[in-house]
Design brief:
5 helices, disordered N terminus, 164 residues, alpha/beta, 40% helix, five-stranded mixed β-sheet
Length: 164
Amino acid sequence: MHISFCHLDNVKEREIIVVKTILFVCTGNTCRSAMAEGILNTMAQTRHSHVHAISCGLAAYPGDPATPQAIAAARRYGADLTQHRARRVTKYILEEADVILCMTRQQKQMLLKFAPDQKEKVFCLCDRDITDPFGGDRTVYENVAEEIFHEVGRILDQEEKQEL
């Protein structure tokens, strides 16, 4: 959870805004988790939500860019992944997140073996595995991005209800 201070033009005091950090985890952090991060951040900004996404991969090669297909698929939802660079999961990244969402049940199991102390905040993005589109064609990526868009929208809807 991050706290930011915003100066309001018509008010002399500072408003405290609590921002919830959601971490998306997949294998290489160049497709699914990168798209989820970009799509959630775009949607959250549009909705003025106090949620921020980051992402990493269990077997990521740090510095790898998002795949061209992921960039194109995420762009359909207003997300720009051109500057995305893959990060490998670390204990620090896990500790900084308020909620950790894996793309598959197997990734969740692997993550819990790596960091069992984080089990209270580790979940799967949805009740079915999000298929890895790596190596697939444009249609495969677009289908995965659409599924991620739907799930991210559901998450933001839940967060907005909790803020009321």
